[in-house]
Amino acid sequence: MTPPQEASEDAPKVAQLGELEELVMDLLWQHNPRSVRDILDALPRRLAYTTIATVLQNLKRKDLVTTQREGRLVSYLPLRTREEYTAQLMRQALDHSADRAASILHFVQDMPQDELAMLRDYLEQT
Predict the structure, then answer these.
(1) Helix (H) or strand (E) holding 68
(2) What span, in angstroms and rounded, lies between the C-alpha atoms of 18 and 110?
(3) In the Cβ-directed half-sphere of 83, how many Cα atoms lie within 13 Å?
(4) 68, 109, 114, 126: least buried by Cβ within 10 Å?
(5) In angstroms, rounded to a whole number, what is the distance separating the alpha carbons of residues 72 and 52?
(6) Omega within 30 of 0 (cis) for the link into 33
(7) What are the distances in angstroms from CA 22 to CA 10, 19, 33, 75, 82?
């Protein structure tokens, strides 16, 4: 059994997203930059302007988005891609595993064949 690996002190802790935060990030990952109004118009249900403004401020505090100003218009952009965010979540999960190797093996064991082939191809290239 492999001893637990300490979480890197330098590795930033990636923030978990709530349901509305995830919805807003999905919109930003699909198309950015977006203003609060753009996000409101793209949402499947009507929410208050202040609700989305608060969500965006929370995402900014979590270092997931940044702002871009053009005159009075403030737009929001993601600081990392969806794939980079997902990879950070995966690394964080592995950092908390008691047996990192076993966790990786269980993850790979459940992968579909096409993803396993992609992983093999990548590993052969490195």
Answers:
(1) strand 65-70
(2) 26
(3) 0
(4) 126
(5) 18
(6) yes
(7) 25, 5, 16, 17, 11
